[in-house]
Amino acid sequence: METTDTSRSTAHAKAPARGAASDRSDLAVSVHGLVKRYDDMLALDALDLEVHTGEIFGLLGPNGSGKTTAINCILGLLTYDSGEIRVLGEPMTDSSRDLRRRIGVVPQEVAVFKELTVYENIDYFCSLYVPDRERRAHLVEEAIEFVGLGNYRKFRPKKLSGGLLRRLNIACGIAHKPELIFFDEPTVAVDPQSRNAILEGIQRLNREGATIVYTSHYMEEVQQICDRILIMDHGRHLALGTVEELTGMVATGERITITAPDRTDAVLHKIAALPFVENVQDKGDELEIRCSRGDHNLMDILDVLQTEGIHPGHVTSQPPTLNDVFLALTGTALRDSGSTDEE
Question: In the beta sheet, which residues pair with residue 259?
């Protein structure tokens, strides 16, 4: 997969507020009031979700938040108790064969045949949507090239690394050139290099015209590639917007880190007494300072150090993250809030 600029444009139209009427002509996915129960457990609690055509839409939440359940309901793989779902302008039914041809799915669990080669696996899954052999052969070659498996086309899955298996999983889901592609946790348990290749490939698919729905519990990934993000937990909608809009919802400001080995306890107390400082952690030679929102927090802190004759070394200022948003909404950090159970 080619290396690309990982910055995301926020030029897509802003989604309407929850419950507001919207023009559905530009919606690739429309979900309203979706309820799904497993006996006494409420897996989806009146979930609303709208994905605009042409965007990368992120579903962010801890394990067990309902992401996979929501996708399976949208795809018609699960029945649900109540709500309305439309995909590419149509309801998904058991007879929606033409509609299914326009959709690609890359599941969380690698779903390939162990006895088939890389080429044979991709060809099989593509054949479910493209019966013409000549056209399919061209599509399979494109998919192999796209995921960078050209040197492995005759390999069987057991000879592939975890990262290469994930790439094969992606190729099987996208070979038929779908308009709408669902990626469910595609980077679980892969190395950083494979993760970057997968994320760059998803961005390339989007540039080539595909609408993407991307689920993850890795906030860094959705922050990197998604145009809009829905944060959910316990099957409920918590917040929706661009990264900038979501981080703007909370009063949390930046996290400032300063290397100051010669600082004193008196300096520490003066910094902690600043009105915008929420917390100061002394980490040996380094101070980590959590702030509320302000226009010149960093300058005020540096002024204290200068007044006290302290010469800081390395200084960084990190803006609020999606984890800060989740923490503000739920009282629990995103990385700590999930269980190991599947959704």
Answer: 286
